[in-house]
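Retro notes (design track)

What went well: tokenization of the new backbones is finally stable.
What didn't: we kept losing track of which sequence belonged to which structure.
Fix going forward: every design gets posted as structure first, then sequence, in one message. First example under the new rule, 413 residues:
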């Protein structure tokens, strides 16, 4: 990572050796754009499909939440301090694949002669020296986009929509931000990743746009004809006391509110997958299982399906986007209410980062527990949220937001 810092396009995806099923690699790194696609939401999925089928190569990048406007008749009118493109993918010049103790370096044929030189340079880097680069930088002065009082009022408004029958559940988020702030992205990412150690960590640089993500959640993976989605709904704190920690995890597994949140989203994901799946192939492999991460316990379900013959890979993403865990049910109504009550355009937050292989197989995370940074505007941002259901208590939802925000605050000093 430290050797890669001079590249304008960087994608680093790290599983942190987390014990999970369905993993292809321990880590991947893609560097330098040979070709790229960057667009707003208009016809974005059609453009991505054409790009993926034309390159028939590895491509890395992101789908922002606001591609919802390409999928449905929706809009995004809230203020946007980050100004990321709605979609950005690139075909890398240099690719590193790590699995166990095996590292593969795949370079474009015109750059083959650089493999040995690059590897020698990488081995020479002293990390102890490199990590001190940001030591003199001023800490980002983080402020909340909305006050706690306003957050509580907005949750009550969301509950009124639920009681009226417009929605069953919606994911409501709030932004924390800093203006006129410079950060050292690699250093901040490594701090965040060390704090959280999640299975879907990602570091992305696309020109002046940076993502530092400690995501624990998979959005969608395609392996051959098989599709896997693993939505997270249900969060509880960790404890340093082992007995108490086990009790907290057990309470989460039996919490009826958290289970209902999760099951509603499982139903939504099943419905989304059924649009592009072979009839009868959608299956819930695991329901409401509690997994433990460094900062939190999470309730995760796994849904699988077999993609129908003739469906292009990008269509599987379009049919299921945005992911149910970050929207709500019914999905379109939830997204309209989210747009009304939230104060900030989500952009890449609650979108997805990942890659396509030359075969068309892919793997994408959900962009949560993430810091976003525009290095030209010197704008730093992270957002947190949670599922609001009929059983939600506004004060507890706010506390959950702060629990999720803790790692980003800590990483930014």
């Amino acid at each position: 990572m430290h050797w890669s810092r001079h590249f304008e396009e960087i994608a680093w995806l790290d599983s942190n050796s987390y014990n999970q099923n369905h993993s292809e690699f321990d880590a991947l790194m893609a560097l330098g754009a040979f070709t790229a696609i960057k667009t707003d939401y208009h016809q974005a999925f059609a453009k991505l499909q054409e790009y993926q089928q034309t390159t028939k190569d590895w491509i890395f990048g992101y789908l922002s939440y606001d591609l919802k406007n390409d999928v449905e008749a929706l809009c995004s009118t809230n203020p946007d301090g980050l100004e990321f493109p709605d979609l950005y993918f690139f075909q890398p010049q240099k690719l590193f694949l790590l699995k166990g103790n095996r590292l593969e370096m795949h370079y474009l044929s015109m750059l083959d002669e650089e493999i040995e030189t690059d590897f020698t340079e990488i081995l020479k880097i002293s990390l102890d020296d490199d990590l001190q680069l940001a030591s003199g930088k001023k800490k980002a002065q983080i402020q909340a986009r909305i006050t706690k009082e306003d957050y509580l009022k907005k949750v009550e408004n969301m509950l009124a929509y639920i009681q009226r029958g417009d929605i069953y559940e919606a994911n409501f988020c709030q932004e924390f931000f800093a203006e006129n702030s410079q950060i050292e992205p690699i250093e901040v990412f490594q701090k965040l990743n060390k704090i959280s150690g999640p299975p879907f960590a990602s570091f992305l640089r696309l020109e002046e746009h940076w993502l530092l993500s400690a995501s624990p959640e998979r959005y969608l993976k395609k392996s051959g004809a098989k599709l896997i989605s693993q939505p997270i709904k249900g969060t509880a704190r960790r404890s340093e006391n082992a007995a108490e920690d086990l009790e907290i995890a057990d309470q989460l597994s039996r919490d009826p509110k958290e289970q209902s949140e999760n099951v509603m989203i499982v139903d939504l994901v099943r419905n989304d997958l059924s649009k592009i799946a072979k009839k009868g192939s959608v299956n819930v492999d695991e329901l409401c299982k509690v997994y433990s991460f460094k900062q939190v316990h999470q309730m995760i379900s796994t849904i699988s399906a077999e993609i129908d013959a003739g469906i292009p890979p990008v269509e599987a993403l379009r049919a299921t986007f945005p992911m149910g865990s970050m929207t709500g049910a019914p999905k379109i109504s939830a997204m309209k209410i989210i747009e009304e009550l939230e104060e900030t355009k989500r952009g890449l937050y609650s979108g997805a980062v990942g890659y396509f292989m030359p075969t068309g197989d892919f793997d994408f995370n959900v962009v949560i527990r993430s810091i976003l940074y525009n290095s030209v505007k010197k704008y730093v941002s992270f957002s947190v949220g949670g599922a609001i259901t009929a059983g939600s208590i506004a004060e507890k939802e706010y506390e959950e937001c702060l629990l999720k925000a803790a790692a980003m605050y800590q990483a930014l000093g």
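Added context from the reviewer: The CA atoms of residues 24 and 175 lie 33 Å apart.
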